[in-house]
Amino acid sequence: MNSELAVKTIVAPDWSTSEPMILFAWLVEVGDVVAIGDRMAEIGIQGVSRDFECPARGVVKQRLVTAGSSISAGDVLLSLSLNEDLHDSSRPVSD
């Protein structure tokens, strides 16, 4: 059995804009179990906030950008552990 954890890096979206983006707020903490479609962060473009949704299921391993930072499409925002035990009794995991 392979005990190594698969890690997926999650990058800032390409919302087809040349305007700078700001990571307004994180909506997840390290250790949170997340599913596809969960709101992970609020990202601002021209002062308007948009939700950034999770593209994969996993456990938040590390947030690599602080709230208030300027970001560009493709910047690594956080990493997810994909092979951890995804059972969290405080929050159901959607399939």
UniProtKB/TrEMBL annotation:
Xref: Pfam families: Biotin_lipoyl
SUPFAM superfamilies: Single hybrid motif
Domain Lipoyl-binding positions: 9-79
Domain of life: Bacteria
InterPro entries: Biotin_lipoyl (IPR000089), Single_hybrid_motif (IPR011053)
The name this protein goes by in its record: Branched-chain alpha-keto acid dehydrogenase subunit E2
Lineage: Bacteria, Pseudomonadati, Planctomycetota, Planctomycetia, Planctomycetales
